[in-house]
Amino acid sequence: GTAALIWNEIIREKVTNFIMNQSKEQRILNFVLQNAVRGDPCSVVDTIDKYCSQKEWAMNVGNEKGRILDKTVEEANPSVALELGTYCGYSAVRISRLLKAGARLLTVEFNPEFAAIAKQMIEFAGVQDKVKLLEGPSEEIIPQLKKKYEVDTLDFVFLDHWKDRYTPDTILLQECNLLRKGTVLLADNVIFPGAPDFLNYVRKSPHFQCTNYPSHLEYMQVEDAMEKAVFLG
């Protein structure tokens, strides 16, 4: 798995970027703009999956784990959801297409280039009314959620950013009183690349009830899993 990631993410991507004079993320967006149906979030998600499974690997949640994400979102039925790690907007589009009328998703992206791509992806999918993209580090944005973005508490949180931020950001969400009894956290990539500190924290905490969903790394046959942690108060 590590060797495949190094090949796809570093060697192959850098060579292709140099030859084509554009980023992989721009190529994914261009493929969507040319092949997906504008205003159809399902078409956008399917088109990204097609590109990343057939042409270039990318770190979207992917369709296999995407079905776990869908099921969790549908069960949580959130009014206010938070995503940490937007990347190209794949999961923001995937989550927002399941939100009820009046619900909103706040998605946080640290990388300005990824944020610019995601913004176009979200608008093309027609879900910009449900999604607000917040640019900057999660540790700075989380404490601003209550006052600046009028969040009382969160119903659903999707963790899919830097793995070493999973635990500190979960603690920060608790400290900022953003979690209520029943808030659902879902964390991606807990086996590969892995988030052992996070698993240790939520599984040993009396404040969380955890469920593990074995799966595979997006667009590969490498073992991975998602962890659901329900906040008990």
UniProtKB/TrEMBL annotation:
<feature type="binding site">
    <location>
        <position position="61"/>
    </location>
    <ligand>
        <name>S-adenosyl-L-methionine</name>
    </ligand>
</feature>
<keyword id="KW-0808">Transferase</keyword>
<dbReference type="InterPro" id="IPR029063">
    <property type="entry name" value="SAM-dependent_MTases_sf"/>
</dbReference>
<dbReference type="GO" id="GO:0016020">
    <property type="term" value="C:membrane"/>
</dbReference>
<keyword id="KW-0531">Neurotransmitter degradation</keyword>
<feature type="binding site">
    <location>
        <position position="189"/>
    </location>
    <ligand>
        <name>Mg(2+)</name>
    </ligand>
</feature>
<keyword id="KW-0460">Magnesium</keyword>
<dbReference type="GO" id="GO:0042424">
    <property type="term" value="P:catecholamine catabolic process"/>
</dbReference>
<dbReference type="Pfam" id="PF01596">
    <property type="entry name" value="Methyltransf_3"/>
</dbReference>
<keyword id="KW-0128">Catecholamine metabolism</keyword>
<feature type="binding site">
    <location>
        <position position="160"/>
    </location>
    <ligand>
        <name>S-adenosyl-L-methionine</name>
    </ligand>
</feature>
<dbReference type="GO" id="GO:0000287">
    <property type="term" value="F:magnesium ion binding"/>
</dbReference>
<dbReference type="GO" id="GO:0042417">
    <property type="term" value="P:dopamine metabolic process"/>
</dbReference>
<keyword id="KW-0489">Methyltransferase</keyword>
<feature type="binding site">
    <location>
        <position position="189"/>
    </location>
    <ligand>
        <name>substrate</name>
    </ligand>
</feature>
<dbReference type="GO" id="GO:0032502">
    <property type="term" value="P:developmental process"/>
</dbReference>
<dbReference type="GO" id="GO:0030425">
    <property type="term" value="C:dendrite"/>
</dbReference>
<keyword id="KW-0949">S-adenosyl-L-methionine</keyword>
<dbReference type="GO" id="GO:0030424">
    <property type="term" value="C:axon"/>
</dbReference>
<feature type="binding site">
    <location>
        <position position="163"/>
    </location>
    <ligand>
        <name>substrate</name>
    </ligand>
</feature>
<feature type="binding site">
    <location>
        <position position="160"/>
    </location>
    <ligand>
        <name>Mg(2+)</name>
    </ligand>
</feature>
<dbReference type="InterPro" id="IPR002935">
    <property type="entry name" value="SAM_O-MeTrfase"/>
</dbReference>
<dbReference type="GO" id="GO:0032259">
    <property type="term" value="P:methylation"/>
</dbReference>
<feature type="binding site">
    <location>
        <position position="188"/>
    </location>
    <ligand>
        <name>Mg(2+)</name>
    </ligand>
</feature>
<dbReference type="InterPro" id="IPR017128">
    <property type="entry name" value="Catechol_O-MeTrfase_euk"/>
</dbReference>
<protein>
    <recommendedName>
        <fullName>catechol O-methyltransferase</fullName>
        <ecNumber>2.1.1.6</ecNumber>
    </recommendedName>
</protein>
<keyword id="KW-0479">Metal-binding</keyword>
<feature type="binding site">
    <location>
        <position position="91"/>
    </location>
    <ligand>
        <name>S-adenosyl-L-methionine</name>
    </ligand>
</feature>
<feature type="binding site">
    <location>
        <position position="109"/>
    </location>
    <ligand>
        <name>S-adenosyl-L-methionine</name>
    </ligand>
</feature>
<comment type="similarity">
    <text>Belongs to the class I-like SAM-binding methyltransferase superfamily. Cation-dependent O-methyltransferase family.</text>
</comment>
<dbReference type="GO" id="GO:0016206">
    <property type="term" value="F:catechol O-methyltransferase activity"/>
</dbReference>
<feature type="binding site">
    <location>
        <position position="218"/>
    </location>
    <ligand>
        <name>substrate</name>
    </ligand>
</feature>
